[in-house]
Amino acid sequence: MKLARALGYVNVDAMLGSITLPQLLEWADFNEIDPFVEERADLRTAKLEATIINALRGKKGRAITPRDCMPQFGKPSMKPQKSGEQMAAIFASFAAAHNEALKRGG
User: Which of 34, 54, 56, 35 is nearest to 46 (CA)?
Assistant: First the structure.
């Protein structure tokens, strides 16, 4: 299904009917070297997110790993969702810390 999508096919059977077994195996090998799925993009983004969070977390905060930032598809969240007020308070504290760092020249 992912190969069909990557190659622009809507119909998986049509894609399979248009390529030979050696071509399919070559695509499988290529996918091992350079995957054409979004997991790698998610991992790159998670690494960036973890780096930013860790740089801004302060001395008492828990270190974040890229795994903490990876999206979990199909798994229900174990954490209760934050309210709009809670999210606004979190953002306000982040903005205050950022503004304070700018005042200090960083």
Answer: 54
* pLDDT of residue 18 exceeding 80: yes
User: Does one domain contain both 80 and 54?
Assistant: yes
Residue 49, judged by CB atoms within 10 A of its CB (0-12, 13-18, 19+), counts as middle
For residues 44 and 28, membership in a common domain is answered with no
Helix axes 84-103, 39-56, angle to 10 degrees: 60
The model's pTM: 0.41
Regarding predicted confidence, which is higher, 83 or 37? 83
**DSSP 3-state of 83:** coil
